[in-house]
């Protein structure tokens, strides 16, 4: 699951394209299937979003939650791909984008009535 935060006046106009760019990176780097997009977009009021100095109002936070198992190199490739694609396709400077990957063990994920370690029919690989 991916959660994207930003100031609503900046995030709302690009949210569909941003979701497309992020999912495209997930597909190319992690080989995620097309139908595995799970994005939550959280447009915030300016007064509800504090961010570091040196950033513009376009500052956007992308939190990627995934089951543990991807190699550090794979995760770094994903982060770099998102930075590159967001800048080239949406014009968002990498200074205004923050990406975090939060990993949880498969037994800590619940979907379709089971935990992630019980799922044996995933259409993608976790250990890449």
TrEMBL record:
Name of the protein this chain belongs to: Tautomerase family protein
Listed PANTHER family: TAUTOMERASE YOLI-RELATED (PTHR38460)
InterPro entries according to UniProt: Tauto_MSAD, Tautomerase/MIF_sf
Any Pfam family matching the protein: Tautomerase_2
């Amino acid at each position: 699951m991916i959660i994207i935060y930003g100031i609503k006046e900046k995030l709302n106009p690009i949210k569909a394209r941003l979701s497309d760019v992020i999912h495209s990176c997930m597909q190319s780097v992690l080989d995620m299937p097309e139908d595995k997009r799970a994005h939550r977009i959280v447009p915030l009021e300016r007064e509800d979003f504090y961010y570091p100095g040196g950033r513009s109002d376009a500052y956007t936070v992308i939190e990627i939650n995934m089951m543990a198992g991807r190699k550090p190199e794979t995760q770094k490739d994903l982060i770099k791909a998102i930075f590159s694609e967001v800048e080239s396709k949406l014009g968002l400077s990498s200074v205004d984008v923050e990406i975090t990957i939060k990993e949880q063990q498969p037994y800590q994920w619940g979907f379709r009535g089971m935990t992630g370690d019980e799922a044996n029919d995933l259409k993608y690989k976790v250990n890449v």
